[in-house]
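Re: weekly structure request thread

Next one in the queue (122 aa):
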Amino acid sequence: MLGCPVLTIRRAQLHHFEGDAELRFVDQLVEIVAGAWPCLAQALGPTGLRPHVERALGDARAHGFSEPQHLVKYVNVGCALGLGFATRQRFAWAARILAERNAPVDRIDRLVAATTRYLESR
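Done, posted below.
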């Protein structure tokens, strides 16, 4: 199509779109956590829940998770066990799972299954 205008998306514009998508994702995740963990949401209050979710997302990404469904699962494990759970001695089993070198989907599924077993055993 000669003579047609070309749409150019600059890096700054792309970064802006990515930032908007991240904000929407965090907003959705805050709503999910508030619905699934109402006692936690109430304890943290409206100004504390979002930073809690953002920190959990940061931890998830530090462990190599990037897919939205993996991030949601990791945040839920963090709600069940507490932020920074992978650094606590009593959750050494979680740290071992997170340190495995297999695919993220395998690690997150193993982490969720192990967390479920842990919670059911209490």
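The first helix runs from residue 11 to 36. The chain is about 75% helix and 0% strand.
Next request, please.
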